[in-house]
């Protein structure tokens, strides 16, 4: 049997410090990130019940009338509600496409650094919808766990690259991050997609590492590799789907590839299918130089590039 292009990594084999187990895990990660840029990760310790409660609360918000959601509306990169037609991820690849078929609640880093200019762009307060008062505590608990998990993953990536475990985490003392709760309604709400329209169009992520909690569905995640073309991403309800972005690929001298992916349109044969994904984008400290590129100048340009309308 051939090894899967997207393997499942059990972090419990990484954490105890068994040198042989750690070497095996690091080699698997290195190989997968050269091919697909994606992993599944288990043994992470994040409560699945918490993820379910976030979905329930966010679902209450998304099903409100658009007039109620409109007062939280923001552009891509803002903190609030990204409504229908706000974003077209395929634009980042230079592809003209209809807007993505999703809505998002977006949150981002909010603990000031003390540098007024940096804080004004990257560390602003988040907006929490009054209509779902329980969402704030749930999300903040989840975000604390995501930051801890992301630093564990970056430690693993440092070793997988043949460097020190702190090779990446030395640049995450006060990092930026983004968190999107993405709602993908079904055709029963949206009608039929336009030609070439996706829930999220083909793209690569822009930063260092993305940690995704997703639901299974016919209109779900696909990953592109040179060997297999577009394929459905493997799914495990216990696992997070992890991929690296453009900055991480550059940081490795393009040894690893930024994981290209898309989310399929809502399926015609399951018109009521709706999915909610929790997407955590972990970045680095503002001003980090990634082989000659200012990391946050690049991130801002890419966020601007996918803004539709």
What are the defining features of this structure?
single chain, 309 residues, alpha+beta, eight-stranded mixed beta sheet, four-stranded antiparallel beta sheet, 14 strands, 29% helix, globular
Structure description:
- The chain has 309 residues and is of the alpha+beta class.
- The protein has eight helices and 14 strands.
- The chain has helices at 19-35, 48-62, 66-69, 116-122, 135-160, 187-190, 246-251, 295-305; strands spanning 8-10, 38-42, 80-82, 103-108, 177-184, 200-204, 209-213, 221-225, 229-232, 240-244, 260-263, 275-282, 289-290, 293-294.
- The strands form three sheets. The chain has an eight-stranded mixed β-sheet with strand order 1-2-10-7-12-5-4-3.
- It starts with 7 loop residues before the first strand and ends with a helix.
- 41% of the residues are buried.
């Amino acid at each position: 049997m051939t090894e899967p292009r997207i393997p499942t990594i059990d972090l419990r084999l990484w954490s105890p410090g068994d040198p042989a187990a750690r070497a095996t895990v690091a080699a698997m990660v290195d190989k997968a990130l050269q091919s697909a840029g994606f992993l599944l990760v288990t043994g992470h310790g994040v409560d699945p019940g918490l993820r379910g409660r976030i979905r329930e609360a966010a679902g209450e918000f998304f099903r409100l009338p658009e007039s109620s959601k409109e007062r939280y509306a923001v552009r891509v990169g803002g903190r609030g509600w990204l409504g229908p037609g706000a974003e077209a991820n395929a634009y980042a690849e230079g592809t003209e496409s209809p807007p993505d078929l999703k809505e998002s609640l977006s949150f981002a880093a909010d603990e000031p650094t003390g540098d007024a200019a940096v804080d004004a762009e990257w560390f602003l307060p988040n907006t929490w919808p009054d209509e779902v008062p329980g969402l704030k505590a749930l999300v903040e608990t989840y975000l604390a766990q995501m930051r801890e998990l992301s630093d564990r993953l970056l430690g693993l990536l440092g070793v997988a690259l043949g460097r020190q475990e702190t090779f990446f985490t030395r640049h995450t003392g006060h990092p930026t991050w983004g968190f999107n709760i993405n709602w993908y309604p079904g055709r029963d709400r949206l009608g039929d997609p336009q030609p070439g329209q996706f829930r999220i169009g083909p793209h690569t992520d822009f930063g260092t590492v993305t940690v995704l909690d997703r639901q299974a569905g016919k209109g779900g995640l696909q990953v592109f590799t040179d060997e297999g073309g577009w394929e459905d991403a493997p799914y495990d309800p216990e696992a997070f789907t992890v991929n690296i972005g453009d900055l991480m690929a550059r940081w490795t001298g393009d040894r690893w590839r930024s994981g290209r992916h898309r989310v399929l349109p809502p399926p015609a044969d399951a018109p009521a299918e709706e999915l909610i994904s929790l997407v955590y984008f972990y970045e680095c400290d503002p001003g980090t130089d990634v082989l000659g590129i200012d990391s946050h100048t690049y991130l801002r340009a890419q966020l601007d590039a996918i803004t539709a309308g």
